Amino acid sequence: MEIVRLTAVSKTFGTGAGAVTALDKVTLGFAEGSFTAVMGASGSGKSTLLQCAAGLERPTAGAVSLAGADLSRLRESALTRLRRETIGFVFQSYNLLPALTAEQNVGLPLRLAGHRPHARAVAAALDAVGLGDRARHRPAELSGGQQQRVAIARALVTAPRVLFADEPTGALDSTASRAVLGILRSLVDDRGQTIVMVTHDPIAAAHADRVVFLADGRLAGTLDHPDAATVAAHLTALEAGDTETVGDHGTSRAGGAMEARTTSSATLTADGTTRAADGMTRAADGTTRAADGMTRTVGDTTRTADDATRAVGAAARTADDATRAVGAAARTADDATRAVGAAARTADDATRAVDGGTRAAGEAGSARRGEAARVGGRREGAADGRVGGAGWGGFGLAGKASAC
Ligand SMILES: Nc1ncnc2c1ncn2[C@@H]1O[C@H](COP(=O)(O)OP(=O)(O)OP(=O)(O)O)[C@@H](O)[C@H]1O
Ligand SMILES: [Mg+2]
């Protein structure tokens, strides 16, 4: 089953005289669980092909289907969700967020998907690319190759069904490069993931099941079960404009190349000049894109920094609220303690008052009995007054205590 399919996909950047056709009616499928390398000269449309296939760029014409969904029919939010759930992308320029550490960069796709990054999954992805000991480093504290490996770990961490990798070994030495290619190969062989990888390196391409060649935005042949020597030979033929050996897709271009060989040397020189001018235009385009990319990255970083600042502000506000709540709770607890104390004192006072009353009543009783015995019942009212006075005096004190 094809998990990605491009049908007559064209992509033109700009308009009028400055328009650049980066892809020109490319029709191509990628089978689920396959490993494809995309090769071609600088400016031939490899990155554009990957970005259109991944739904990061919308084609000017043609259709792209990803995991059964026609991307042109999806709104931006649905497209974002599909991308998040289905694909991983290693950018040619890495696109790491400079303010985040390696492990935070790796955990980012999980966070964006609304999951808390599992420390173990993040550590495993960094370990897989040999960077377990650089988890706390920021991109500026890492070499180019290490940054590239962080970008690879970030694309691995979600175990995407399709992994697009734009020159993932471009900045790596041969040892690191072999390790990364080994990982990619095992993702396909052991987990059935699909990989589409741009590379300029025939040795890297030889790890794939198939190589797809691009020239000037057009498909210029494919090669199954590639080995490095055959890939290198095809690239040389492609650069010379001779694509006869490349296969079916290259046949029409081969005809053009043969015609070209029969033209005069003056035409060839003019062609060379045109190619040089094209090269310079592409280089200028590349520089503009790099500047654009940097602007975007700076924009992203600023947004991230802003978000972080806002998050810190919110956290601080939450902490303040928590402190205030704790303070209020403490005050309430204090009040409760004080109230209990007061109640206890009141109860004590009441007890004392009752005791006093009882005693007074007892004394009054005995006095009354004595008086009665001596002078009769006329002084009884005075004795009752003493009992009442002792009782209310006690409650008066309790009243003051409870007001504290
Ligand atoms: N955003 C853009 N705006 C204008 N032109 C663009 C843009 N992106 C790509 N291009 C142009 O489209 C063509 C193909 O570019 P692309 O980046 O796909 O090439 P590539 O094959 O990946 O090259 P490289 O090997 O140098 O990375 C180039 O001529 C390039 O200048
Ligand atoms: Mg590129």
From TrEMBL:
<dbReference type="InterPro" id="IPR003439">
    <property type="entry name" value="ABC_transporter-like_ATP-bd"/>
</dbReference>
<keyword id="KW-0067">ATP-binding</keyword>
<dbReference type="InterPro" id="IPR017871">
    <property type="entry name" value="ABC_transporter-like_CS"/>
</dbReference>
<dbReference type="InterPro" id="IPR027417">
    <property type="entry name" value="P-loop_NTPase"/>
</dbReference>
<feature type="region of interest" description="Disordered">
    <location>
        <begin position="279"/>
        <end position="302"/>
    </location>
</feature>
<dbReference type="InterPro" id="IPR003593">
    <property type="entry name" value="AAA+_ATPase"/>
</dbReference>
<feature type="compositionally biased region" description="Low complexity">
    <location>
        <begin position="353"/>
        <end position="365"/>
    </location>
</feature>
<dbReference type="Pfam" id="PF00005">
    <property type="entry name" value="ABC_tran"/>
</dbReference>
<dbReference type="GO" id="GO:0005524">
    <property type="term" value="F:ATP binding"/>
</dbReference>
<keyword id="KW-0813">Transport</keyword>
<feature type="region of interest" description="Disordered">
    <location>
        <begin position="353"/>
        <end position="389"/>
    </location>
</feature>
<feature type="domain" description="ABC transporter">
    <location>
        <begin position="4"/>
        <end position="241"/>
    </location>
</feature>
<protein>
    <submittedName>
        <fullName>ABC transporter ATP-binding protein</fullName>
    </submittedName>
</protein>
<feature type="compositionally biased region" description="Basic and acidic residues">
    <location>
        <begin position="366"/>
        <end position="383"/>
    </location>
</feature>
<feature type="region of interest" description="Disordered">
    <location>
        <begin position="243"/>
        <end position="265"/>
    </location>
</feature>
<keyword id="KW-0547">Nucleotide-binding</keyword>
<feature type="compositionally biased region" description="Low complexity">
    <location>
        <begin position="280"/>
        <end position="302"/>
    </location>
</feature>
<dbReference type="InterPro" id="IPR017911">
    <property type="entry name" value="MacB-like_ATP-bd"/>
</dbReference>
<dbReference type="InterPro" id="IPR015854">
    <property type="entry name" value="ABC_transpr_LolD-like"/>
</dbReference>
